[in-house]
Write a structure and sequence with these properties.
This is RNA methyltransferase. Belongs to the class I-like SAM-binding methyltransferase superfamily. RNA M5U methyltransferase family. It comes from Acacia crassicarpa. InterPro entries: RNA_M5U_MTase (IPR053304), SAM-dependent_MTases_sf (IPR029063), U5_MeTrfase_fam (IPR010280). It contains 12 helices and 20 strands. The chain is α/β, with parallel strands linked by helices and 511 residues long. Strands 2-3-19-20-18-16-13-14-15-1-17 form an 11-stranded mixed sheet, with helices on both faces. It has a 7-stranded mixed sheet with strand order 6-5-4-7-8-9-10. A hairpin with a 2-residue loop joins strand 11 and strand 12. Helix 2 packs across helix 4. The N terminus is likely disordered.
């Protein structure tokens, strides 16, 4: 498989899905790291100290909302009742890893060079709470934060002062890669290396205080790089930001030291993630979700992956389900490079035609649905755009019109039936010599897989889809992506039309 297209559409604001911040864990021996619970509304879970947070930063840090029962957020009971109301009585919830799960964290840097504070804002303020012992962070994030503090003090870097707009270091992003094939799988997680991104208070690397930036990067590499007994640092990047708003990253990035490419292995494929692209904080939980999702995509189907990011979901399906075609639609153009690098590492045996489109999935949503058997949607926390909900609600009547139009114009060239293919050809980058597989079908998806990080918005979207009678709920699963909060990740599978009544076979009476 050597081909994909990257098509360009007008750029729009980037939507991402974030959890409320970094979360904590616990000193006593934890229970099994992953529990799958089959829940019913009558399930009663008593407070358990074995699944408690035990974090010294709780109540001061804004990241966590509850201390007890990390394995069973209260919202799980609500979700169980909700899905049962709509015909899914076997909702399951995977508690996943409860401590040390966060592999990606954005932290504010404040205080002084002699006493730097690196952490999260106190609830309702811009006062930064130092969280050196965060129990949710992968332990190597905490180690990298400690090393960064030492570097700030030694190099005399001034943390950012928001009120005055002065200082050098505004934020830091820590991302852990557990991709290391030289180690046994069981050891890769604990030996993860940290990519450090320093958000510097200047327009570019030519500022008057750029020598401080380079000195800090060199300190991190000298004390955490490959020549140390404990190789902690994967790479050091700089991002330049002078805006006075709350946007963390600016548009200018620079690779300073270490490996340029950051790899992870999830969903059966190697995934490239640039520091500028969105990545799931809970790598293990995301991998569990992807494996579950793959079970609902038949082999050989055509897939549309909306809100695709770097295309992780779509590409994992191409590799594991031998999809006929996969098209990924994403509004953030920064994800293009990660997509291209991930494609280059896909097995050569894959025969899918794969395209990535820089586009807003809410604009002309029908054009992305036509010709797909399965559509996967993974929107930001706010949920689906109204235009996409409308298209999905009216999908049956739209399909009849599309098919009627197709029959009346059967003499046309096949490619003219596929507007999304035409757009891809008009503005695309082609790699390799293979051409996309021809798909003359004008059919629309029979399966809709909705991945949600926003429970309230998902409920509204779900009700809207079911009210149209165009879809019914087939299955639903929950995942504990953010232990310590009331946020859960939901995977819901919708099928076209009404739910079929189960026809149980009568048991033969024994003579």
């Amino acid at each position: 498989m050597n081909l994909f297209h990257v098509s360009s559409r007008p750029s729009c604001p980037l939507f991402t899905c974030h959890a409320t911040a970094a979360l904590p864990t616990h000193p006593s021996p934890p229970p099994p790291s992953s529990l799958t619970l089959s829940l019913t509304p009558s399930t009663s879970v008593q407070p358990s100290l074995a699944c408690a947070l035990h974090c010294p930063h709780f109540q001061s840090c804004s990241g966590c909302t509850h201390e007890l029962n990390l394995h069973h957020p209260i919202i799980v009971d609500e979700a169980t009742n909700f899905f049962k109301k709509y015909g899914v009585s076997d909702f399951t919830f995977d508690s996943c890893k409860l401590w040390g799960w966060r592999c990606r964290a954005k932290l504010a840097v404040r205080g002084s060079s002699t006493n730097p504070l690196i952490g999260l804002y106190e609830e309702g303020t811009h006062n930064v709470v130092d969280i050196p012992d965060c129990k949710a962070h992968h332990p190597n994030i905490n180690a990298a934060v400690d090393l960064l503090k030492r570097g700030i003090t030694e190099v005399e870097v001034q943390p950012y002062d928001k009120d005055e707009g002065t200082g050098d270091l505004r934020y830091v992003q820590m991302a852990v890669t557990t991709y290391n094939t030289s180690l046994p799988a069981a050891e890769r997680y604990k030996n993860g290396k940290v990519q450090v991104t320093l958000v510097w208070n200047s327009r570019n690397e030519n500022s008057s205080r750029s020598e401080k930036l380079n000195a800090l990067a060199n300190f991190l590499w000298r004390n955490g790089g490959p020549r140390n007994n404990f190789h902690l640092i994967h790479s050091v990047w700089a991002n330049f930001q002078t805006s006075t708003n709350n946007v963390i990253f600016g548009n200018r990035w620079r690779h300073l030291l270490g490996e340029r490419d950051f790899w992870e292995h999830v969903g059966g494929i190697d995934v490239s993630l640039a520091p500028s692209s969105f990545g799931q904080a809970n790598t293990r939980a995301f991998n569990i979700l992807l494996k579950k999702l793959q079970k609902y995509v038949p082999c050989g189907t055509s897939v549309a992956d909306l809100y695709a990011g770097a295309g992780v979901i779509g590409l994992s399906l191409a590799a594991t389900r031998k999809c006929r075609s996969v098209k990924c639609i994403e509004i953030n153009k920064e994800s293009k490079l990660s997509f291209e690098k991930t494609v280059d590492r896909l097995p050569a045996t894959i025969e899918s035609s794969i395209t990535w489109h820089h586009a807003d999935a809410s604009k002309e949503p029908l054009s992305w649905l036509v010709g797909s058997d399965v559509v996967v949607i993974d929107p930001p926390r706010k949920g689906l755009d109204t235009s996409l909900v409308d298209a999905l609600q009216n999908i049956s009547s739209i399909e009849r019109r599309v098919l009627s139009s197709s029959e009346s114009s059967s003499s046309r060239v096949k490619e003219e039936k596929r507007p999304w293919v035409l757009r891809a050809k008009e503005a695309s980058v082609q790699v390799g010599s293979k051409t996309p597989q021809d798909e003359s079908t004008q059919s629309l998806p029979q399966t809709l897989i909705y991945i949600s990080c926003g429970w309230e918005s998902f409920k509204e979207d779900c009700k809207a889809l079911l009210s149209s009678k165009a879809w019914h709920l087939e299955k639903a699963h929950g995942f504990n992506f953010f232990p310590g909060t009331q946020s859960i990740e939901v995977l819901a599978v919708f099928k076209r039309g009404h739910r079929k009544a189960k026809s149980g076979k009568k048991k033969k009476k024994r003579l």
